[in-house]
Amino acid sequence: MLPQTFEYLKPASLGETLDALDQLKDKRVHVLAGGTDLIPFLRAGLKEADYLVDIGGSGLNGVTLEKNQAKIGAMVTFTTLGRHAEIARWLPAVSEAARQVGAVQCRNRATIGGNLCSAVPSLDGAPSLLTLGAKFRLQAKGKERLVPAEQFFLGPRQTVLQPGEILTEIIVRLQDNFGTSFLRFGRRKALTLSIVNVAAGVSVREGKEITAARITLGAVAPTPIRAYKAERTLEGREVTPELLAHAAEVAAGETSPISDLRASADYRRRISAVLVRRALENSVGRIAARVSP
Predict the structure, then answer these.
(1) Is the pTM of this model over 0.90?
(2) Which of 15, 51, 149, 232 has the most other CB atoms within 10 Å of its CB?
(3) Helix (H) / strand (E) containing 88
(4) Distance between CA atoms of 170 and 64, rounded to whole angstroms?
């Protein structure tokens, strides 16, 4: 197979990036972030491009925490995210997910924005953000919009992004009384795609009553999914091991996994129940640790 030829552009600012993408809306254009997903596809001939627009010069690699919210630039690498002390403190599920993506070399290059925009069902960057109620800032020339994380994914490798539009920032509200946890399961402990990944978050009143619950699962449906029935099972109830186990079984029943080379659908459902229960237990434990004297 002959190598592809395309024009490589690296604008020097976000404004220049949006100008370039606007001018090329009718062309075969791919946005280059870390490149860990895109470059192998181009080399294999699975994607074709007339233009490659590198957004590395767009100034989207910052992490700030202010006014009860975190703002994470789309070009922030998983290494940076996994090592950020304040992210680990306030958004532990995000930190946990970042530290488990691929290999060290991959985490050094791969970006949170690129991972989200790949929209593969097993992506590890999404579940914690859905559980935290994150919003994604999408920008095109002359306009921008905020999209809830759970509305961003339309199907495998499909998002709400329009031609000329890119994800520039992830915004997450910081919550004192909301414990979160991320867990994944693969065929190996590292360097593998998730067979199932899960993020859970709960708020607990006086160490007993669950006042809010959010559960998100990945690799068990065409897109990351919220387990709404399981969440309702938990809310307003007193925390017990039996309740958490029951909610985990309910969450597993909300999945629609496929069977493939990595796992059968039935196996994914069984693992989903285990991971949801453990993630809920971790989340409750984190709240207890915060309020204990």
Answers:
(1) yes
(2) 149
(3) helix 85-90
(4) 11
